[in-house]
Design brief:
Order of helices and strands of chain B: EHEHEHEHHEHEHEEEEHEEHEHEHH
Number of helices of chain B: 12
CATH superfamily of chain A: Thiamin diphosphate (ThDP)-binding fold, Pyr/PP domains
Order of helices and strands of chain A: HHEHHHEHEEEHHEHEHHH
CATH architecture of the largest domain in chain B: 3-Layer(aba) Sandwich
Number of domains of chain A: 1
Helix content of chain B: 25-40%
Distance between the termini of chain B: 39 Å
Distance between the termini of chain A: 53 Å
Shape of chain B: globular
Number of helices of chain A: 12
CATH architecture of chain A: 3-Layer(aba) Sandwich
CATH class of chain A: Alpha Beta
Oligomer: heterodimer
Radius of gyration of chain B: 20 Å
CATH topology of chain A: Rossmann fold
Largest interface: A-B, 49 and 46 residues
Number of domains of chain B: 2
CATH class of the largest domain in chain B: Alpha Beta
Structural class of chain A: alpha/beta
Strand content of chain A: 5-15%
Structural class of chain B: alpha/beta
Shape of chain A: globular
């Protein structure tokens, strides 16, 4: 597979944006400034970005409760996301969705989804729209190892196989479903095989390595876009932090997180390849880092200072007409 | 105007809307039938109860989509399709089966507009079959519309006549909110006059099927037929019953109910669903809290008991509100003994 250097720099920018965004959210949660539950994507940046670099605005994704990374990877505006996470009137969902429901249909983002296994059937419906209207668009569902056990995922696999829908099942195996490891919760221990059992191509990828994800998803998207039906990729990465911020993580062995940060950092891995194989200078990447840090600093400040929805907003947008 | 069955009226509305709007699709179990069998791919069902018979021939299988038995995927796919530009009409064959796909109704379609800040339409219709009296037993007979009515974001329609079946279904398909369209299985063979051509019945507008002055009888779905019968009989005894069919429970035409109760001073609600937390409870509460000064008698509820629907034929008849029970409740409410 060939790699356009412009695409690679954009991928780096998005991965760095996810990392800085999430690290900042972590500090903000610790300071108590963020309402509700927040689930961070650190450690998994290469999956969302490696997958979404193949998608257009007219392609759809269904996301999870851990959705910030998917949003940024799909091109949702970071300022609008922060306004939403702070539940402000100008948020991308007018402040009534919050962290777990960020959606932006104009970017093909069908919503983070606070129900584990809630989004895959919805993404299947977006794939059905593409097929019905005869476009070459695709839809993708991000599915954690925990969600892979939900019946909705099995139904979505079968439904899209039977109807030959342009659908990609993007599994993110991070080793934990909430506080329980895959060693316990995952019957058969092989998610890709489950997808393959429905007669679709299913690959495994190293979710810490951008190139591994990008290559595997590239093949899946080509397959789906060409009208050959669904495909699946199971990417393995690590959730650096808890299920949600505030999780005491008693299920992790001592030093696990520190070790992961040392040995399984998708950004470190990506940068090494960019510098060694693509003639991209570290100084160029540091410039991107600075821009991102500055952007997030600005947008967090804007979000904190922005007006809340008015009390009337309680009653709006329940129905289109009633 | 032609005499048609409820089933034919439903077909009329679906065909009318599919001809009018190419983004309307139908998906569900055996809406066509025949795929994968040994007899070829010809239509083998046309819907379990024949409502979509001939649709695949006219509209093609791309728009009339047979699905596996997979309610969460059917409703979920309808949700995703609705968010992305189609107007899906999905079938959940029996309302009881909503037990396996409730998340897609409760947490997804009902919430999209609100939690996405109003930046989407959700034009999805779920057609479903409900109701007792068919000997279908505890898992194929329930009337769960009150439960759905209590979920903000959903609309709930309950056609009681062939004309309303056509007019409400066309309205449901054109509506930009999710609509749960509840068809009573015992009404499918009922006949009535159905307007020809495009016909729409607005949501939230009750139908006063009998005008009266002594007592207001609010009834839903198939119970409207029983209510009309009782009203006609009691009229001959000199009791004037006003029958109100709200047609939709969400939105609910509270004004029509309160206006009628204001006029009659008496209220009976006839509801083929559970006595607890149902429409009968809701509407008697409405009268008690907002029309108390008009009331000349305590509002009464006529519902089945708080039990599942038995398969046993005579027990199922006992479960259903009977004409006699409706008559007696009304006589008691207006303070007259049986003649």
């Amino acid at each position: 597979m060939s790699y356009d250097p412009v695409m690679l720099l954009e991928a780096y920018r998005r991965m760095r944006a996810i990392r800085e965004f999430e690290e900042r959210m972590r500090r903000e949660v610790q300071m108590g400034t963020v309402p509700g539950f927040v689930h961070l994507y650190c450690g998994m940046e290469a999956i969302a970005v490696g997958a979404c670099m193949h998608l257009r605005d007219t392609d759809y994704i269904g996301s999870t409760h851990r959705g910030h990374g998917h949003c940024i990877a799909k091109g949702v505006d970071i300022g609008a996301m922060l306004l939403e996470i702070y539940c402000k009137a100008d948020g991308v969902c007018k402040g009534k969705g919050g962290s777990m429901h960020i959606a932006d249909l104009s970017k093909g983002m069908l919503g983070a989804n606070a129900i584990v296994g809630g989004a895959p059937p919805i993404a299947v419906g977006a794939a059905l729209t593409h097929k019905t209207l005869g476009t070459d668009g695709v839809a993708m569902a991000f599915i954690g190892d925990g969600a892979s056990n939900q019946g909705t995922v099995a139904e979505s696999l079968n439904f899209s196989a039977v109807l030959k829908l342009p659908m990609i099942f993007m599994y993110e195996n991070n080793g934990y479903a909430e506080f329980t490891g895959t060693g316990y919760h995952l019957g058969g221990a092989d998610i890709a095989k489950r997808a393959a059992a429905f007669g679709m191509p299913a690959e495994k990828a190293d979710g810490v390595d951008f190139f591994s994800v990008y290559d595997a998803v590239g093949r899946a998207v080509v397959h789906a876009r060409a009208g050959n039906g669904p495909a699946a990729v199971e990417a393995f990465a690590y959730r650096w932090y808890g299920h949600f911020e505030g999780d005491m993580q008693k299920y992790r062995g001592a030093g696990e997180v520190d070790r992961l940060r040392e040995t399984a950092d998708p950004l470190v891995k990506f940068e090494a390849r960019l510098v060694s194989d693509f003639d991209i200078g570290a100084d160029e990447l540091r410039e991107i880092d600075e821009e991102i840090i500055e952007l997030i600093e600005d947008k967090v400040a804007v979000a904190k200072a922005a007006p809340k929805p008015s009390n009337d907003a309680l009653y709006t947008d329940v129905y289109g007409s009633y | 105007m032609a005499i048609k069955t409820y089933r034919e009226a439903l077909s009329d509305a679906l065909a009318q809307e599919m001809r009018r709007d190419p983004t309307v699709i139908i998906l569900g179990e055996d809406v066509v039938g025949g795929l994968g069998g040994t007899a070829g791919e010809d239509e083998a069902a046309g819907g379990t109860f024949g409502v979509t018979a001939g649709f695949a021939a006219e509209f093609g299988r791309r728009r009339v989509i047979d699905t596996p038995i997979t309610e969460s995927a059917i409703v979920g796919a309808a949700n995703g399709a609705a968010l992305t530009g189609l107007r899906p009409v999905a079938e959940v064959m029996f309302m009881d089966f909503m037990g396996v796909c409730l998340d897609q109704m409760l947490n997804q379609m009902a919430k999209f507009r609100y939690m996405f800040g109003g930046k989407c339409d959700v034009p999805v219709v779920i057609r479903t079959l409900m109701g007792a009296g068919f000997g279908a037993g505890p898992q194929h007979s329930q009337n769960l519309y009150a439960m759905l009515t209590a979920i903000p974001g959903l609309k709930v329609a309950l056609p009681s006549s062939p004309a309303d079946a056509k007019g409400l279904l066309a309205t449901a398909i054109r509506d930009n909110d999710p609509v749960i369209f509840c068809e009573h299985k015992l009404l499918y063979g009922e006949t009535g006059e159905v307007p020809d051509g495009e016909y729409l019945v607005p949501f939230g507008k009750a139908n006063i099927t009998r005008s009266g002055t002594d007592v207001t009888l609010v009834a839903f779905s198939r119970m409207v037929l029983l209510a009309n019968k009782v009203a006609d009989k009691l009229a001959r005894e000199g009791i004037s019953v006003e029958v109100i069919d709200p047609r939709t429970t969400s939105p609910l035409d509270r004004d029509a109910i309160l206006a009628s109760v204001g006029k009659t001073g008496r209220l009976v609600v006839l509801d083929e669903s559970d006595p607890y937390c149902g429409m009968a409870s809701e509407i008697t509460a409405l009268a008690a809290t907002e029309a108390f000064s008009s009331l000349k008698a305590a509002p009464a509820k006529i519902t089945p008991p708080h039990t599942p629907v038995p398969s046993t034929p005579h027990l199922e008849q006992l479960w259903l509100p009977s004409l006699e029970r409706i008559e007696n409740t009304i006589r008691a409410t207006v303070g007259k003994r049986a003649a």
